[in-house]
Amino acid sequence: MTSTELARAVVSALVEAGVREVVVAPGSRNAPLSFAAYDAAAAGLVRLHTRIDERSAGFLALGLTKVGSRAAVICTSGTAVANLHPAMLEAAHAGVRLLAVTADRPARLRGTGANQTTDQVSVFGPLVPYVDLGPADAAVAHTALGLGDGPLHLNVQLDEPLVPGEAWDTRGLVAGAGASSSTDGASSGESIDVGPRTVVVAGDDAGPPARVLAEKARWPLLAEPTSGSRTGEAAIRTYRLMLGGPLADEVERVVVFGHPTLSRPVMRLMKRDDVEVLSVPSRGVWSERPFPVAQHLESRPVVEAPDASDWFDRWRAEDQRVAVALERLLRDEPELTPYEAAGAVARALPAGGLLVVGASNPVRDLDLMVPRYEVGGRRKTIANRGLSGIDGTVSSAIGAALGRDSTRSFALMGDVTFLHDANGLVHDVHDPEPDLTIVVVNDDGGSIFATLEQGAPEHAERFDRLFGTPHGVDLAGLCAATRTPHWRVDSLPELEQALASPNGGIEVVEVRTRRDNRRELDERIRRLAQR
Q1: SS3 assignment, position 42
Q2: Nearest-CA neighbor of 22 among 100, 97, 104, 81?
Q3: Where in the sequence is the domain holding 413, given as residue range(s)?
Q4: pLDDT, tens digit, for every residue of 202-224?
Q5: Cis bond upstream, residue 161 (ω within 30)
Q6: What is the spatial distance between Cα 274 and Cα 155, in angstroms, rounded to a whole number?
Q7: What is the three-class DSSP state of 510?
Q8: Residue 173: left (phi > 0), alpha (psi -120 to 50), or beta?
Q9: Are residues 369 and 493 located together in one domain of the fold?
Q10: How far apart are CA 474 and CA 449, in angstroms?
Q11: How many CB atoms lie within 10 A of CB 82?
């Protein structure tokens, strides 16, 4: 079998497995795969995207996959493969079916020092299954693609010649069914008693079942913005602050869904000796929780009757009190705060809209500012919370916006996160471009660290050099270099106007805020729930 035949067999397997999006990074060794992907796209079987940076390519494919498309990323050999590692690790920990197709030298050249040749077999480590495909192994790709839910690495040995000699007749190629979601609000499952004072924790990707349980049981719902559960009457907006107040001391039990990573107070709650934790299985390579679990539930928990006590009413009343105090505190600030920026984005997100949020402070700011959305509004908020890194956020957001039919698409991130993936703005002029408004909260550095231990006053002399890292980058100039429209706003009315006036395509709205008062501001906010 020639390299062209092997590459076409691999692309055929992808199409038949339901892959609809193919991201290609240019290279020589992967030329047979690239030609095959191009022909499949020309036949209308897939949509083709090209990126010059493999890391951005990987996260673009990840973003496409996270919103329900099935995507594969194709790259050449050597360091190109290593640049896919961050996206593959994120996919592994989030339980996302990201497919990496990497070109390799033929087996006879391994271990010889041939140019751009390294050990690519199992290069992503034990968390990512792999298949090493030689000329006689094309059928193995079909089998491998039908197994598992997490990421998969197809390493394809390609020998010269690397360009096709004839056109590919794709008429017999039939596209398979795409990825589908089985998450719904069904109320079948394992019955649990209502007795103990219980809260429901919904981490990343928890889905509607967390909301359904909380509403039926009349328990407070502590839902992260990316949980898919932050709707309805049970959601407690200021839960993170309230966990520092007196009501938290009364919690006796936690039912946890999804992958909670956002809040130290939530993690401390679940590690308490006097709190029983019931855990619902979540996606990702590791099922073991980082806190003691009294009972692992095999199916969705249900209750026979609601909690008749005043437990939920007390949480709801305190949530309203703290929320009013928070709004008053922010309104009295002389300058625009990151919390107000997050709130403006959250309010601007319409029914059917998409919001991709970056790690560090933006997702935490959003957590306090998300309004109580109505059930059934189809607002989707996602983030790379598998490993909670800032890698590839711009590319993930572009991929998600391309992959989901949304009424409006936003991304919210900090300046360091934006700069970390500024390459994500670079794309082939022939590539599809989504309508996406990227809101960058720019405080000239890493303000997340100001809220952590290293931001304490005793470390002030060394803080900026090691953690704050002021960069002084002109974001307008950077955007101009990539022909990306850019607006800078300094007030809440200006931001609200920018969010209400999209111009189409990818655009950046830069929100300038302070960093020097971040620790003090957060301390004042935390005290709102303390009595």
Answers
A1: helix
A2: 100
A3: 334-518
A4: 999 999 999 999 999 999 999 99
A5: yes
A6: 49
A7: strand
A8: beta
A9: yes
A10: 22
A11: 16
